[in-house]
Amino acid sequence: MPQDLSPVPWPVRTARLTVRPATVDDVESIWQIRRRPAVNEWLGHDFSDHDTCVERLLDPDRLATTLVIELDGRVVGDLMLLVEDGWAQSDVADRAHLVQATLGWVLDPDHGGQGYATEAVAEVVRICFEDLGLRRVRAVCFADNVPSWRLMERLGMRREEHSRRDSFHRTKGWVDGMTYALLADEWRALRA
Hints:
Elements: E1 12-13, E2 18-21, H1 27-34, H2 37-40, H3 50-58, H4 60-64, E3 66-71, E4 74-84, E5 100-107, H5 116-131, E6 136-142, H6 146-154, E7 158-169, E8 173-183, H7 184-191
Parallel strand pairs: 5-6
Antiparallel strand pairs: 1-2, 2-3, 3-4, 4-5, 6-8, 7-8
């Protein structure tokens, strides 16, 4: 069942960007960005093949977790917002239902270095804590993807794990992975 993001007043606007749920009409623009070698290198799936990418992005569950980043009406990136259960003991699992999110992001390299990814992800973090009332967000990346974990740190996310050679990369073999997270109360303290 697709996740419910209806509490969010879409589209959401930041100082320079618009963030909104992806539609079928966005799939081609998303593929044009994801197929680029500098982007595709860090993604969890190989998006270099058009038909494979389109099929994957059109999956209703995948599409429901995808947001697009627009600059002046043009898609310049996408975000993953996956609301999920927290881990819990079975007798209290109902209290951990849909309380956290895993985030991911992609930005067109032509628009890198201008703070767009930070602006968009910061807005999604705000959405998670204010609009959706979640208690925790997290993000993972390959340790070699320095721009990604630096963005996490700029947002105040805490490094929870630097795992050694736990992640298999399609061209690099076994590499280190990173996990960052932020709690709602930590986020509120950072904003105060």
